[in-house]
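Hallway conversation turned thread

IA: we were arguing at lunch whether anyone had actually written out GNAT family N-acetyltransferase end to end. Turns out nobody had. So, for the record, here is the sequence (245 residues) and right after it the structure tokens. Reply here if something looks off.
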Amino acid sequence: MQELRTAAEVAEVTSDLMVRWAAQALEPGYPHERGAAWRSRNAVVVFAPRLNRADRVVHAGDEDDVVALLREVLPGLNGQKVRLLAAAPLASRVSERLGHEVLATFGWLHLDAAAPQGPTPEVEWLTGADVPAIDALLREANPGSYLFPDDPGAVRWAGIRDTDGTPISIAGDSWPAPGLRYVSGVATHPAHRGRGLSTQVCTFVTRELAALGAVTLMADADNEPALKVYRGLGFRYSPISASRG
């Protein structure tokens, strides 16, 4: 087993974007306890404390190698209530062999095309003065959001304003990793849905973030309106599963 000490070392041994996203926990400035990462044969495992609201153990590689590596590193994390996260087929097989419970299957999406170029004249980066309105909008329009303004992973917010200046459609740039950006906290006020506002905001954010690296996000498998927007922007959907021992 080899310990990997930086996100760059993780990127050298895997092309899996979700593992590389989790490797932000190895970098200076990560807002929580520093994480850890390991490689053995054709398996890579990253432990990222409190990443996107959970202590995550993200893994990729050949099934046998992943199982062997997890059996070696998980006992050292016994004090943590970790969530294992991986591509759905691998996660299912690994969980069965380790006796873990699969909690949910949802989607990991990454931009797999040129950055979208649709018109977004109404979208802008919001300011600190907008934080209370952003928080209120999320609590009304998307209370289950994994990102709120007080989250340490929130970097900045883009949005469209109503005529009185209040944000009515938003999306967050959050939890950035070296070479990767992550979109979360997408919401549109119920009174303003059906106007394509989320598409405009997500087009703007995706285009801005694509200039900085790969663009990724997560979405529920049954959220067809959101998935239609993301696919229209050039995102590719891959099923992933979370499990717990």
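OS: looked through it. The first helix runs from residue 7 to 13.
IA: good, adding that to the notes. Helices lie at 7-13, 17-22, 63-73, 88-98, 131-141, 197-210, 224-232.
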